[in-house]
Amino acid sequence: MQDLQYYPTPPDLGMRAWKKFKARDFVRVLEPSAGEGHLIDAAPRNPWDGRQRHIDIDAIELDATKHAVLKEKADVVGFDFLRFEAGAIYSHIIMNPPFADGAKHVLKAWDILFDGEIVAILNAETLRNPYSKERQMLTRLIEQHGEVEFIPDAFQGQEVEREAEVEVALVYLCKQADTSAIIGDILGEMKADTQAHSLGADFHEAHDLALPNNFAENTVLAFKAAVEATRQEVYAEARASHYARLLGETMAKVNGAASGEPSSQSSSSTATWVRGELGKRYGKLKDRAWTGILRSTQVTSRLSSRAQSRLEAEFENIKKLEFSESNIYGFLAGLANAGGQIQIEMACDVFDLITKYHSDNTVFYMGWKSNDKHRTCGMRIKTTRFIIPGNP
After folding, report:
1. Are 148 and 171 in contact (CB under 8 A)?
2. Chain-centre distance of CA 125, in angstroms?
3. Which run of H or E residues covers position 294?
4. Could you read off the pLDDT of 61-70 as tens digits, one per residue?
5. How far apart are CA 127 and CA 10, in angstroms?
6. How far apart are CA 277 and CA 235, in angstroms?
7. What is the C-alpha to C-alpha distance for residues 125 and 135, in angstroms, rounded to an integer?
8. Nearest Cα to 223, choosing from 284, 264, 272, 179?
9. Phi and psi dihedrals of 299, rounded to 5?
10. What global pTM score does this model have?
């Protein structure tokens, strides 16, 4: 606990942190130092039902022993936030990072966020004593893109799980995507078009990656290449939509004859659309990548149907993790360690199948099936043998 600097967020401080967000349209939220989810517990609730949270939250926590509790509150997507890369899909990041590395964690959040807001609970000394380059960078970032509120005794009181005599800084940052970088310079685009021999002049067939022999590394490199290609695809679609909007609508659309025809993205919604599309497509790529890892183990071919169902149910949680080498090895190690338990569960499945037609469930007698316990006529059969269902 000391090494990980685990100080659970007090309820009042947690609610105060959530209220710092100015944009309340929570598309998807990341909590990158989640612990057991105390900060997640403080998330806004539905006004018509105070028990139900209406925000989709992903969580990252380095201490794996806390994941069981955390999974009841959020989707666990990783272990080490400082190695996490998939920040472009989030609209908000809220965090209570380790006080010793607070500046580093906030700078990481700013780096991976595409367009959205950040709220962080830091030790006030991180800002009052900016002796390192990271702290100086954070101070400048707050001056340019945010604000800070200092709160004394935030970790003291009856509701505080672990007290500390510390003043905290409640930091708010707002990052706005540079849509001009996505849309580009229209004059430059027009010049490029006039210089090209054709619209497809710059197209080249993608070559297979020259990959090393390590399977996990190969797959991660391929995944990152797919993510980057998808990012460029989404940016290209945003640019195409922007230029189409400048041209106006089609004649059919103007005359009302093409009511189902999609409208071009407005400039104000470009960043929101890009973030949403990146999130959807990234999720599909991650599903493909994790499924490929599971299939490569050839485990499913050796499992019974029930064991496969159980593994697939657990796999729903696995594929939420960021697709990285460390997570792949962690998954494979967990699968290997669970091999004995999987075999025991399959043996239990066989036993359940054998005893499926026990008298408590169903009695076979003279070709007829009944679940009536008072059928004593079948007692002789029941006491002398059991029936294995299925083909011999």
Report:
1. yes
2. 32
3. helix 270-296
4. 988 888 889 9
5. 21
6. 10
7. 10
8. 284
9. -75, -40
10. 0.68
